[in-house]
Amino acid sequence: MFRFLLIGLLLILFLSCDYYIVNSYKNGVGYINPRTAIGPKDFSACYEDGILMPYYSRDQRAGFAQDKDSLRRYFASKFDNYGIINESGYITVRFIINCKGEAGRFEIRQVGMDYKKKKFHKNLVEGLLELTQELKDWQPLKRSDMTYDSMFHLTFKIENGELVEILP
Amino acid sequence: MENWLRYCLSLIFILTMISCIELSNETYRNLSNVERQKRSSDYISLSDFHMSGTEKHMKALEKSVRLDPKNEQAWMALAEPFLYRGLYEEWHERSSKVIELHPKAWQGWLGYQKLFFFRDYGGALYDLDATDTLTIDKTDFVQNKSVDYLRGLCYLGLRDYDKATEYFQLYLDKQNTATGTVEIDETAYLYLAIIANELQQYHKAIDYLAATPRDELLADHYYQQAYAYFMLGEIELATVAIRRANEAYKSDNYHRTPFYEVLYQIYQADLSDLEADIACFR
């Protein structure tokens, strides 16, 4: 019993000096773990061992290939709040756009109007995720003639159950 | 079994001691406060050599705050990669720390970020008003944009056109007095024209656009001009304006940023739709 307690104590001490051991930035900020990501498992980035850059990093930013207005009209026509009118905040769908313009490895983040973690109604979240996954017209990050994998996100601002903005 | 356990425990103990020794060396316990602050700033400079959000960038900034937990610049630099990647909870944790440490310097930044990344007009106004109150004897600028201009945008987002006009006009008056027209942001005239068009004051919109102190305007200016002329029934002038708008747009001369959509951003579809409407009346 004493030995187990000692091992436990030492492990706690070991992990608390974690600067060199637990590296939360190992894959950079915003890394989406393929094992926990939502979406088809056969999706792959073009450069799996490379750094995933954010969507604005090069001359031609990654994003929806048609303009933002088309995106807005798409979501406006298909968004369904399932009668939920008392929820406000931001639902963010994060994903990778690979160098071929394919989107995959989705994850969801939710915050309230106070920017603190919040859990929206499941239907709202799944609805927005599904609509995002149905979109196919993505353009990859580009510089000169080279295209790159990148991280992208769509943030949906919800006010009293209504979709009022698509950001950024 | 007993020996195995003893070896494991010893190994864990040694690794623990090594980690803690490394950490105590790394935090420079023997340095004075001034030396720690200097070293902390050095790590911020070091982080600039690496792409924002990468492991080395973030670790350099983490070192910076370990050395000087009151280094608000390091905390702000730590927050930004999360903002640009849609990780808003993490962004908020770090940027709240920045405001706690030095609200005078950074509350305006928070207002700027809330306005453009969240369209949180009320929240942004709160921060921008606060920053103006904290520095009562001067006009603050955030990312090269006047607090008055930013407040104009917030009120425009809230559809309070009177207050929006008041703040854009205040910005223009102050800027004209301080530095003349050279450093004026021409989009202030654009937004005044947009407000005038929204209020169906088309002559006023045209006057604002004509007053813009630039030889070449953005596609956005010409678009608003074309719309105003179209609504006044001045089809020939509208045709000229929409042609200029299309030319400017094709030359990438329109109001936009790489990080976020600006307020009232125009797209090719907007130009094409207005052009089609004008063509119907020719």
The fold-level CATH name of the largest domain in chain B is Serine Threonine Protein Phosphatase 5, Tetratricopeptide repeat
Uncertain segments of chain B are none
Average the pLDDT over all residues of chain A and give the rounded result.
Answer: 87
The end-to-end span of chain B amounts to 95 Å
Beta-strand fraction estimate of chain A: 25-35%
Shape assignment of chain B: elongated
Q: Which structural class should the secondary elements of chain A be placed in?
A: alpha+beta
Query: Could you estimate the helical fraction of the residues of chain B in percent?
Result: over 70%
Features:
heterodimer; A: alpha+beta; two-stranded antiparallel ribbon; 3 helices; 9 strands; B: 282 residues; mainly alpha; Serine Threonine Protein Phosphatase 5, Tetratricopeptide repeat; 3 domains; 14 helices; elongated
Structure write-up:
The complex is a heterodimer of chains A (168) and B (282). In chain A, a hairpin with a 2-residue loop joins strand 8 (150-159) and strand 9 (162-167). In chain A, strands 1, 3, 4, 8 and 9 form a five-stranded mixed beta sheet that branches. A two-stranded antiparallel sheet of chain A has the order 2-5. A two-stranded antiparallel sheet of chain A has the order 6-7. The termini of chain A are far apart. The longest helix of chain A has 15 residues, at 2-16. Chain A has one domain (30-167). The relative contact order of chain A is 0.21. Chain A has helices at residues 2-16, 68-78, 122-134; strands spanning 53-54, 63-64, 89-97, 103-111, 138-139, 141-143, 146-148, 150-159, 162-167. Chain A contains three helices and nine strands; from the N terminus they run H-E-E-H-E-E-H-E-E-E-E-E. Chain A has 168 residues and is an alpha+beta fold. Chain B has three domains: 37-101, Serine Threonine Protein Phosphatase 5, Tetratricopeptide repeat, CATH 1.25.40; 104-176, Serine Threonine Protein Phosphatase 5, Tetratricopeptide repeat; 186-282, Serine Threonine Protein Phosphatase 5, Tetratricopeptide repeat, CATH 1.25.40. By secondary structure, chain B is an all-alpha fold. In chain B, helix 5 (88-101) packs antiparallel against helix 6 and helix 12 (219-231) packs antiparallel against helix 13 (235-250). Chain B has 14 helices and two strands; from the N terminus they run H-H-H-H-H-H-H-E-E-H-H-H-H-H-H-H. Chain B has a two-stranded antiparallel sheet with strand order 1-2. The chains are: A alpha+beta (168), B mainly alpha (282).
